[in-house]
Amino acid sequence: MSRAEVCVVACAEAWRGDGEILASPMGVIPALGARLARLTFAPQLLLTDGESLLVGADGAVEGWLPYRRHLALAMGGRRHVMMGAAQLDRHGNQNISRIGDVRRPARQLLGVRGAPVNTLNNTVSYWIPRHTPRVLVERVDMVCGVGYGRGPAVDIRRVVTDLAVLDFATPDRTIRVRSLHPGVTAERVRAATGFPLDIPGDVPVTREPTEAELRLIREVLDPEGLREREVTG
């Protein structure tokens, strides 16, 4: 079992209990997680090819999803999006636009894109393949995805990183560690985070894949091993 496979299962768990809702994963491991969830504990989960079709976990066409219908799902809150983040702060504010001062940024990234609409209208989770102080920061350089405490109500379900699973189930809606991946210590996660992090003393270990899930990941969903390129260690 690899760290990447633990992360696939952790991403899959983010969609547990969602019912018939459109999963919008961004990245290899989130996509594998959504497909694994569909094949196991979330058979009602809807998947899309990203263009105009609803598909099954094997890619077989299940229905038509024209752009207007996709927008209706997005604006009506019938999606659960798992996005990436160049920066994420303790309140769940996400940055995918720029690093540095707005007048002279050190690096230009994707731009705001659909992050504000995603966070304001849908359940959102995040996938961070490199948990470092440069990504988990005290304050984002620009707010793209809206976090807690900025006015509008948001629903940030999970943050899955290569070290841990985090959530915002705290009284003040600041981030905490929900579980540590196998072999990862609390000290390592604290050192890799750019702000003081709440890690309960009895924090559990992230659930490992079952034998059936490992078979699906390795033989059905990702026989080429693309997951291992996204997570090392």
Percent helix, as a range, is: 25-40%
Number of strands: 13
Radius of gyration: 17 Å
Give the overall silhouette: globular
In total, the number of domains comes to 1
Number of helices: 7
**Percent of residues in beta strands:** 15-25%
Poorly predicted ranges (pLDDT <50, ≥5 residues)? none
Largest sheet, in brief, is:
6 strands, mixed
The assigned structural class equals: alpha/beta
Record the strand order, biggest sheet. 1-5-10-11-12-13
Order of helices and strands: HEHEEEHEEEEEHEEEEHHH
Mean pLDDT: 91
Q: Which superfamily, in CATH terms, is the homologous superfamily?
A: Glutaconate Coenzyme A-transferase
CATH class: Alpha Beta
How far apart, in Å, are the first and last alpha carbons? Answer: 11 Å
From the coordinates shown, what is the CATH architecture? 3-Layer(aba) Sandwich
The CATH topology is given as: Glutaconate Coenzyme A-transferase
GO molecular function: transferase activity
Keywords: Transferase
EC number: 2.8.3.-
InterPro entries: CoA_trans_fam_I, NagB/RpiA_transferase-like
Description of the molecule:
A hairpin with a 2-residue loop joins β11 and β12 (164-167). The strands form 4 sheets. Strands 1-5-10-11-12-13 form a 6-stranded mixed beta sheet, sandwiched between helices. Strands 2-3-4 form a 3-stranded antiparallel beta sheet. The chain contains 7 helices and 13 strands. The protein has a single domain (3-230), classed as 3-Layer(aba) Sandwich (Glutaconate Coenzyme A-transferase), CATH 3.40.1080.10. The chain has 233 residues and is of the alpha/beta class. The protein has helices at 3-14, 28-39, 67-75, 115-121, 186-191, 211-221, 227-230; strands spanning 22-25, 47-48, 53-55, 61-64, 79-83, 87-88, 94-95, 98-99, 107-108, 123-128, 156-161, 164-167, 176-180.
